Write the structure tokens for this entry.
Amino acid sequence: MASDRPSLEHRRLPSRGCAHQVSPWRIRFSSALFRDVSARLTRHFVTKRINQPLACWVKPIPEIKMSEHTQSESYETAVPSTAFIGEIKRRSPLAEALAVIALSLGTFAFVSTELMPIGILPQMAEGVGVSLGQAGFLVTGFALLVAIAATPLTAATRHWNRKWLMLSLLLACTLGNVLTCFAESYAVLLASRLVVAAAIGIFWSTAASMAVRIVPQKHAVRATSAVYGGLALASVLGIPAGTFLGNYAGWRVVFVALAVLSFAVFIKMWLTLPDLAARHDGKHSTVSEAWRERPLRAAVYVTALIMMANFLAFTYIAPFLEQITGFQTSWIGGLLLAYGAAGLIGNFGIAPIMAYGYRPTLFVTMSVLIASLAALGFAGTNHVLVVALLLIWGTAYTALPVLMQTWVFKAAAHLNGPEAPSSLYVSAYNGAIAAGALIGGVIVDHAGPWSIMPISALLGIPALLIALKHAPK
């Protein structure tokens, strides 16, 4: 019985509004022919990337050419813009993940080296025959040098190949730790610390932007979180482990371990980091060009204020917990460990939350940090409440570096290269560490440990107001 439908030979594929028309295809139902046609079409469209519709029912795939001035407002593609990237050969997801992990381990090594003297300061002071105040300059002086040197040193190395720059920085960290463990005088000890300080300023200005070059743009925020995850990991694992080792084996052994760690990270970077040039066009934005951007200046101001508030309180958290809340000295290490563990949640959990909007996420995070600082001042000896507030504080604080770095990338998206804007952020961050410690010392000496919490909260309010007005959406 004849069918009312037209034969296959006379059918025409629907055009769906396409401007191109093709003649009917005569198809023979042969499996060999079907496989041959499929293979040819696959090679035609996948390997050659032709921008033509297939028989008018395949949508054209345009060749994407990113603009030098492209800015994305989505949280996934906010960092950095394609003006920062150039042409990068994509690698396998596993290779990209291993490279980002190497950068995160670099953060862990640098931050552990920077903050390690806090846990073993009395032993170091005794080892080189200086006072605790002089030994404390190993931390505050370190942060001051990073704040001063990050911008010019980053500018001086802006043309370096990114992989070889990272390898050089890890070698400097290794050398600095070796010099520290063999230092017999305060001058040599201070010089060894300054070597690492110079290197970490460049590292912080470069690591996040390199991470987002390694991965696809949709994973940019997650890559940034991974890099800053090394900071939280240093707080949870590095500093407590180093303090324990220093108490039982001596402070010099701690820096031997840090030297070994730094060299191990050097080897991992050598094996996993891709060979990335700086910028293919050789043109970089200067610090003065970056500073002229009002949103970037606002990001720097907010970073300086909120981090100063944080470190004003955190630097003197031990005497606050002992003298005001009534915790025994033996509890302090465990409380700080819990603080750092909560920080891991904040660091890695903030990226998906930003999908609901950058500005509200930043505003809520800063508000939570300020509120937790203020509440700690009035928690008294309620240990359960104090521990809960410490955990909330730790979660909010470690989310902020990811948020602020994202703001910097957004504000400078149309500039040539992220290093100059990032160096301003790094200078503000480390300057805030030093300023918070110095101001906090004066406050504690004159008003006692209790006062640091409400004063820190008050210092964070101007940062919150600036962010509310100038933060990107």
Remarks:
- Residues 93-128 form the longest helix (36 residues).
- The chain is about 70% helix and 0% strand.
- The two ends are 67 Å apart (CA to CA).
